[in-house]
Amino acid sequence: MKIDRFRSVWGIAPGPNMDHWAQWFPELKAQGYSGVEVDIHPLEPSRDFPRLRELCNQTGLEIGLMIHSSWFMYVGPRPAGTKAEHHLQNYRRLLESVQQLNPSTINFQSGEDLWDVEESIKFYKGTLQIDSELGISGRVYHETHRNRSLFTPYATRRILEAVPELRITADFSHWMVGCERVLDVSEGDKAMMDAIIPHVYHIHARIGTTQASQCPEPTNPVFKEEKECFERTWKSVIRSRAKDGATTRIVFVPEYGPFPYHPIGSAKTHSQIADEEGQRLQVLFNDFAATLKDA
After folding, report:
1. CATH code of residue 140
2. What is the pLDDT of residues 57-74, one digit of tens each?
3. What residues form DSSP beta bridges with 5?
4. What is the pLDDT of residues 160-193, one digit of tens each?
5. Which long-range contacts (CB under 8 A, 24 or more apart) does 72-80 make?
6. In the chain, how many domains are there?
7. Which residues are in the Xylose isomerase-like TIM barrel domain (predicted)?
8. Are 13 and 48 in contact (CB under 8 A)?
């Protein structure tokens, strides 16, 4: 299998005419990134989408997208009373608008945490229908993210039981802090994660802790328990996807963000942590995948 690394642009301003990104993207390519993951909501489509496509064509980087189904960029108070139909209208409109970018991956922060499970199931069944109609089935992944329908492993498992075709992005840092525990220790938690992992097709590889969604020093021994939990879980995802065959590919994103995710006074910037973790995990994941071929 092929394991590729995309760089989140979170916290890195594009600059006028994306000139900052134009200087930065070749550096990312030189570091071994295969693509960039970009939040579309700060961008102006008619102006910025062609420029982004141009930059990525010039540097040989693929485009991954991050999209919200509602409450874009989390600006202002959460919109009240929005249901599945509202989110589905946004979902279709936004997917249609990004077709010109020819994205390799599309990550959605979707749904709402206050919905009952039945409303979330209705929504996700609708997303699969839209994916099919737009000819992008299998290319959209829904993130395990706080504020959203997949905000806990318990809700996620129930949704996946009802919508087994749904593909998800694993950002398990949200679950670890939300549940306040390492999630592969108890037998009940192991069984829950084992049921969810086969549905993961995209990884946001950020190490969190039981008290924070982002670890400021992932290799510091004080975070050993959390680090090892995440690495075991990500390897389980790779093992699951390897069953799809030798030509399968999975993308991981070392998605470390700025303050307030990254603590003030940290020894390194969030950008340094992202690049260091990306390189470390690329080796770890490739070495692990090689053992699966030999098994």
Report:
1. 3.20.20.150
2. 999 999 999 999 999 999
3. 252
4. 999 999 999 999 999 999 999 999 999 999 999 9
5. 72/41, 73/39, 73/41, 73/42, 74/147, 78/112, 78/147
6. 1
7. 27-205
8. no
